[in-house]
Design brief:
heterodimer; A: alpha+beta; Alpha-Beta Plaits; 2 domains; five-stranded antiparallel sheet; 6 helices; elongated; B: alpha/beta; Nucleotidyltransferase, domain 5; five-stranded mixed sheet; 12 helices; 43% helix
Chain lengths: 246, 489
Amino acid sequence: MKAPLLLALLLAGMLAAFLLVAPPVFAARDQAHADLLRRERDLLGLERELGIPDPAAFGLVLSEHARLAAEFARRSAAFTGPSEPAPRLDELLAAAPPALRPGGPLHDELRRLARLPQSGEAAAPPTEQELALTRVVEVLALAEAPLSVDALELPGAGAAQPLDRLPGWRRIELRLVLAGALPDLLRALELLAPEAGGRAPWLGVTEASLRRIEPSHWGESLHQLETPPLRLSVTLDALFAPGAAP
Amino acid sequence: MSVLGEAALGVDVSDGTLKAALLRRNGRRVTLLRTWRAPLPEHADTAALAEALAAFVRRARPGAGTRVVVSAPAEDSVTRTFQLPVVDAARLGELVRYELLSELGLPDDDLVIRHLARRGLGEQPVHVYALRRARLHGLQAALGARHLRPDAFELPGWALASLVEHERPAARDRVLLGVGRTASDIVLLTEVGLWARHVDLGLATAPPDVLATRLRDEYEASVPGLLPIDQPFRPAEAVLLEDGACDARFAAALKHALGLPVTRLDALERIESSWRLAHEGQTAEQALSSARALGLALAGVELARFRCPAAGGDPRRAAVGLLPAAALAVGLAGGSLLVLGLQARAMTRELQSTLPISLLGDLRDRARDLDAKRAAVAEAQAACDELLALARRRTAVLAARPVLAVVSEIAGERAGHALHVERAWLDSGAAGQRGLLSLTLLASPRLDEQLGERLLRGLRIAYPDVTVHGPEPAPGSELSQWTVEVGLR
């Protein structure tokens, strides 16, 4: 009788242990199943919301980004100029058009805009404004023509503005009004175009306006046209690439 | 039958030698696990026999679930086969008892009568045997005093017949001779009848030739003594078993004496031999010299054709026999519960590791990363476009000269009529927006017919995107006003 009793007790013990231990285990399993269903719903929602990222799409995007980065680097290379320092504005003004020379009507205003030190002040590194004006004065000198500078201004006090679509790039807007013969003005205008490999800052015309071209000798070549003095109004940017700051 | 199979130990003490055979049955598959053999003291009384038997069984160490079947004391036993009508079991018992007691003329209390009815239509053959009650109970009591309570006592002659029917079933008359050391069983087996006679003749009592002759005499005396007069018996062969089957001289002498083909069971055909049997150096011949023990073990595993126990075993021992199965059931139940719990736990872990929350976070991060990459691509594209737009400012300012050159060329054909540029306006454009050079011309009305077409023709050579508007009256003048717009890419 002992053995059957022992077996019955053993079976009862196992049943009791099962009843004590099993419900939490089964509840945990059911909870895990419910959690999995919820995660599946979340996944479907995420798929509807964002779409499941496709590794191929990643690859395409990455390759496109690499291509554009290379293209950007190639195009940026055109805006890399010589590394020697630019001449100071004061050095150029002596040979500039008369209005800009010392004693000229625009001289003092130009120095103020360029933030050049007043007499008695210590020399300072060139500002972006000075660099922009220096580049324009250089171009006017390159024109080698009797041009009259009626205005050379920095709208907005010459504050450098970032270029929204070119991170790190800045621009300073300038307005230039010249008077002279049409061929000289055209040459000056063309010299204001950005030049690959030129020294920073690079100049770029945004708008230009010529008024009343009335040649007395139409039919001659454009370089030999005789015209009364014309006015060329130019709005341009002096562009500073990243790392080109003074 | 247990799912673990059944095991039975058949123990034969009927022929002067202790013999035992252990069989295991799984379905129809029967395996001989082991045999034992030990000498029995000469002229042993019941107590000595029981002592030797108990020690012999202890040596065999049968398991708790192994049925132990012992040969019943067959001395003075009587067997008959009656043809009786088909009646219910209780009535059949009464009929058998009446028939046998009336033939023997012995008191009922002296005998243990058992019968085995075989199916038949109208009349059925009923095999009957009777033992001396005193002998059987004496052996039972002596064994019980030695803590040996066999599960069954079977008639040794019938056990012999059961083995032969199991191994070599045949529908013909046969004489079975189980010749032991001090005693033999003569069994007459027909399709419907079974008669057995236990005689105190064995290999130790006479030389082979003499023994064969005396056994022939006993056989010839048995046929008219046991079988009814109208029951013919024409044996096709004599089957020699037990120790006599291992004695070639005796077999030859018996063949000569009986005048019948003598067959010896030299191999077990439907009982498999275990590896352990061969491992312990036991041969099939040794096993076959324990034919009665094999037949008794067959009765223990319920495969004997003539199973009819003279006495049952201890009910407690039968209950103990069920213990392994009960323990197995309990173990299986416990194991099932354990497996259920482990499965639930494993399923929990699997569910928790499927589609983890971190994966959703990763997917969200990757989607954001892709968006960020696309934004970076858009920014890079915009930066590239902006750089291109800056570079094209050069194209725009260089366009002024060739456009004015065209106007200059046309002016050369004006034949003295008025023509001048009132205003030239240049817009370099921006990224994604073309530049524009706009000219406002004032010309003599005499040039109205040709000037527009001439301007288009001259300018479109270099600038395909040219539009010319005019002539219109110039405000405050008699001249015509023309507007030329040149698109700069």
